[in-house]
Write a structure and sequence with these properties.
The chain has 231 residues and is α/β, with parallel strands linked by helices. The protein is globular, with a radius of gyration of 17 Å. The protein has a single domain, classed as Rossmann fold. 35% of the residues lie in helices and 22% in strands. It has a seven-stranded mixed β-sheet, sandwiched between helices.
């Protein structure tokens, strides 16, 4: 399958809609003037927020369409297919590298993580957000012999890989990262994943807190905040 062609068409068919509450969980860990790489940035929704905060941002994406849309926003973006190419940056170049909802779309996700670590400076941050297939709903479905493909969920049809916190932590540590913090996004707007009652104000507030405190079980997406401690 030609993923470049696929994601060119994807970004022709989709606008800039994104869950900004989820993105804020990443933005909170960024300092103004940080030199940042936003890997697989799409049309640049997160990159724009980081730039507005004062960070120096570069972006990459597999799609030429997404890169062009990001450039039209004034962002510095280049086309890179992380399955077949390396990141076009020197070792230890960035203060922070962000992989937001990216590795689940790749064939060689471990290679992509290794590349992200390579271009992160010693003492710098690697922030990785990816869908959580360990979510309680999937645990229940699998217990009863089911595995439904649900749009915007950890089993979205565009996902090639399915991740748990345990496995991703192991890979990050293998390549010289120390896990400093774990966070989670509930994303209660995903209707196929949550019954409607979960969007009631009080339940929504309580569940969101649980997703952040116990992301392995309750979060749709988990976030690893890592520090590069080995070169």
């Amino acid at each position: 399958m030609d993923l470049v062609t696929y994601y060119n068409q994807y970004w022709l068919d989709n606008d800039d809609s994104v869950d900004y509450r989820r993105l804020q969980l990443i933005i909170d860990h960024i300092s103004p003037s940080d030199k940042i790489l936003d890997v697989d940035c799409g049309p640049g929704m997160l990159s724009m927020k980081l730039k507005e905060k004062g960070a120096i941002v570069k972006g990459t994406d597999i799609s030429a369409v997404a890169v062009e849309r990001a450039r039209k926003k004034g962002l510095d973006a280049v086309q890179v297919d992380l399955d077949t190419e390396v990141l076009p940056f020197e070792d230890n170049y960035f203060d922070c590298v962000i992989s937001d909802s990216s590795i689940e779309h790749l064939f060689y996700y471990e290679k992509a993580i290794k590349e992200c670590v390579r271009v992160t400076r010693l003492g710098g941050k690697f922030i990785l957000l990816t869908p959580n297939i360990g979510h309680w709903r999937y645990r229940l479905w699998l217990l009863f012999g089911r595995f439904p493909y649900i749009k915007n969920s950890p089993s979205d049809i565009t996902h090639l890989r399915f991740m748990t916190i345990y496995e991703v932590k192991k890979i990050c540590q293998q390549y010289g990262m120390t896990i400093k913090k774990l966070d989670g996004s509930a994303s209660l707007w995903v209707k196929g994943l949550y019954p409607r009652i979960f969007r009631a104000p009080i339940i929504k507030q309580i569940y969101t807190k649980f997703a952040r405190k116990f992301p392995s079980l309750f979060a749709r997406d988990f976030i690893l905040i890592c520090e590069k401690t080995l070169s």
